[in-house]
């Protein structure tokens, strides 16, 4: 009985670590892309 619960406990721990990391990565990636888009504007005739 407890071996089944232990399996789900590891799954819950993995999700508790993975989800905040993914959210942080997505926020960082969005900021990075905005900086790149802002830096491109006006160079080599790519005015938008």
Summarize the structure.
This protein has one helix at 2-40. The chain is mostly helical.
Question: Can you describe this structure?
Answer:
- The mean pLDDT is about 80.
- It is rod-shaped and about 60 Å long.
- It is an all-alpha fold and about 50 residues long.
- It contains 1 helix and no strands.
- The chain is about 80% helix and about 0% strand.
- It has one helix at about 1-40.
**Rg to the nearest angstrom?**
21 Å
Which residue ranges are poorly predicted, with pLDDT under 50 across at least 5 consecutive positions?
none
Strand content: under 5%
Cα shape: rod-shaped
Secondary-structure content class:
mainly alpha
Helix content: over 70%
Most strands sheet: none
Termini separation (Å)? 62 Å
**Number of helical segments?**
1
The succession of helices and strands, N to C, reads H
* Average pLDDT metric: 82
Total number of strands: 0
Attribute tags:
mainly alpha
Q: How is this fold's topology laid out?
A:
Layout: H1 2-40
């Amino acid at each position: 009985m407890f071996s089944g619960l232990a399996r789900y406990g590891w799954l819950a721990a993995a999700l508790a670590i993975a989800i905040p990391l993914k959210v942080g990565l997505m926020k960082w990636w969005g900021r990075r892309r905005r900086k790149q888009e802002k830096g491109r504007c006006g160079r080599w005739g790519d005015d938008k």
